[in-house]
Amino acid sequence: MTDTQRNHAVTAADSHRNADGRRNPAPGAPGTPNTSVTPETSGTPHTSGTLDEALERIHLAGPERDGWLSNHAPMAVEALVRRGQASAVHRWLDQYRSRLEDMPGSVEPVTSRNWHEALGDIDRVGDWTVFFERETEGRPWRGVLTEWWPRLLPGIAGGATHGVIRVGHSVRTLLDGEETAPRVRELAHALGYWAARFQPLPPLERLAGPADAAGALDRVPLIAEQDGEMLARLGRLTAFPDWPGGLPQGPEAARTALEELVTAATHRYATHGHASPIMLVHAATAPNAVLRTLPALPDSLWVPSLHAAWAASAAVTSAYGPREGVPVADLRSGPRDPQEVFERAAAHGDDHTIKFADTALDVGDATALVAAGRAAELNTPVW
C-alpha cells in the first residue's frame, strides 16, 4: 500500500470500478472514520460499524505479502469484534498495516468460461477478486458460495489453508449479522484468494484409521523432512489414516464428526503446538472454518466438507507436527474464564494467537482454554 492509502485507509467502496475492474473508494460513505462508534460486545456481535470500517481498510490491500505470507487482518478483526474487543480493532490494524501490500493488478479477467485455467494461479488473484465481487453483486452470496464451495474444496490446503479460513470467518459474520456491502465483499475477497491459491494434495495411501479424531491425528505419519514452505511440504505427504472411515450416515453425522475433529485438533495444540506454534494452529482453525460454513451450504455438501477438513488438518499435522507431545498436566496454568482467555489473546496481539483463541472458545472446554493459553505463551506478542 502507498503511504497515502495507509494514512487514509478507512474508506468505503461503492459500485464504481477503476481500470482494473476493482472498486474505487467513495468519500463520505459509511466506512469513513467515526469517533462515536460504540464497541461491540460478545453478546451483540457486529452491531456497530467497527467491523465494516475495518473491512473497508483491509480491502484496499491484497491477500498476501512478500510473495506468500497471508493477510490475516480480516480474520483477526472479525474475531476481535465478535469476542467483545471491537475497541482494539483500529489500533490493531494500525500496527498491522505495514504488512499489507497493494492488491495485484489484472492479468486477464476471470470469466465463467476460462476460470479453470486461472485456478491455482496466484498471479491472477486480482482477477479472481474482481470476478467474485461481480458474482456476489449479481446474485445472493449463498448461491455463489454453494456453486464454488465444491469446486474449491479439493484445493483446501492451498495458501496454508488461509483461503478456507478466511471464508469461514466471512460466512459466520454474514449468517449472524447484517449483510452489509463490506461483509459480502469480504466473502468475495476470501473466495478469490482461495481460488488463486487452490492446491490439491498429492495422491495418498489410505491407512487403517481409529474410530475417533484424536486417535486419527495421533496416527498421521509425519513427513520425512519437515523443512521449507508449506507448499514444498505438501508434496512430501504420502499417507493419511482413513478417518472417519465409511461415509457418515447423513449430514448431521458429518457435522458431529467435524465438531469432534475441531475439538481434537484444538486439544492437540496444547501438547504438540510447540513444534510449530504458528502453523499448527491451522490444524484446528481450518476445520473450524468448514464447520462455521456448513449452515450456509446444502446438507448434501456436508459429508465432502468433512473429508476435505480432515485432509487439511492431517496435512498440517503431517507437515509440522512433533514426534512427541508435552503432558497436559504440565500445562495447567493461566486463565480459565473464556472471556479472560480471549482478552489475553487480544492483548497479546499476534494474529494467529487471536484466531486460535477464537476457535478454542468455540470448543469451550477446559483443555481448549489451556491450548489457547499455550498459543499465547509460544507465539511472540505484538505489543
UniProtKB/TrEMBL annotation:
Stretches with biased composition (Polar residues): 32-49
Transmembrane spans: none
Keyword terms of this UniProt record: Oxidoreductase
InterPro entries: Questin_oxidase-like
Entry's Gene Ontology molecular function annotations: oxidoreductase activity
Pfam families noted in UniProt: Questin_oxidase
Region named Disordered: 1-49
Record field: compositional bias (Basic and acidic residues): 14-23
Name of the protein in question: DUF4243 domain-containing protein
